[in-house]
Design brief:
By secondary structure, the protein is α+β, with helices and mostly antiparallel strands. It has a single domain (2-137), classed as Bifunctional nuclease domain. The chain has helices at residues 40-51, 60-70, 107-117, 125-131, 139-155, 161-177; strands at 2-11, 17-23, 32-38, 74-84, 87-96, 99-105, 121-123, 133-134. An eight-stranded mixed sheet has the order 6-5-4-7-1-2-3-8. A hairpin with a 2-residue loop joins strand 4 (74-84) and strand 5 (87-96).
């Protein structure tokens, strides 16, 4: 198993949401990244958890966390275990007074839950070998670089804050449309 982190959530050219999982021990822009296509609601839930955004009402994965907490159970990790005919499968490992339990899950739900509770995320080596793509550039790396560039320009008075925000928004829209296949060598 390879421990990964959520490198980002994007939209592919057809408008489908993709979660990008990156091995922890690999430098951004190098190695591999695992794209998994997910639904819009799951993408929103993952982004809310990763960004620590407040929501007015609990989302389904917040409810899952609350249910586990009220039962004295915890998520000790999740794993994307296999891929069959293009469909990814995952498991959530729970620890409770009844002992350790493994529950079948969709990868999107497992990642959303793990992101909320701080549980480690794992991917089977065979899955990464089968479905991983070269990571020539990562979204977080590009966004960080762009924000630094905009800060520099703002400090030098090259553009107004509104112009800088518009450029950042335009770039974020670009990231939403990026496809991991665009970065293959």
């Amino acid at each position: 198993m390879i421990q990964v982190r959520v490198a980002g959530v994007a939209l592919d050219p057809t408008g489908q949401h993709v979660i990008l999982l990156k091995p922890l021990d690999e430098i951004p822009g190098e190695g591999r990244i695992l794209p998994i296509w997910i639904g819009q609601m799951e993408a929103t839930s993952i982004l809310v958890a990763v960004e620590g955004a407040a929501v007015p009402r609990p989302l389904a994965h917040d409810l899952m966390r609350s249910l586990l907490d009220s039962l004295g159970a915890s998520v000790t990790g999740i794993a994307v275990t296999r891929i069959e005919e293009g469909t990814f499968y995952a498991e959530v490992t729970l620890s409770s007074t009844l002992g350790q339990r493994i529950v079948d899950a969709r990868p999107s739900d497992a990642v959303a839950l793990a992101s909320r509770v701080g549980a480690p995320i794992w991917v089977a080596e065979a899955v990464m070998d089968d479905a991983g793509v070269p990571d020539t550039v990562t979204e977080s790396d590009i966004e960080t670089e762009l924000e630094a560039e905009l800060e520099t320009q703002l400090e030098s008075g090259a553009e107004t804050a509104i112009e800088a925000e518009e450029r950042l928004d335009e770039f974020k829209r670009f990231l939403e449309d990026v496809d991991p296949d665009d970065f293959k060598g």
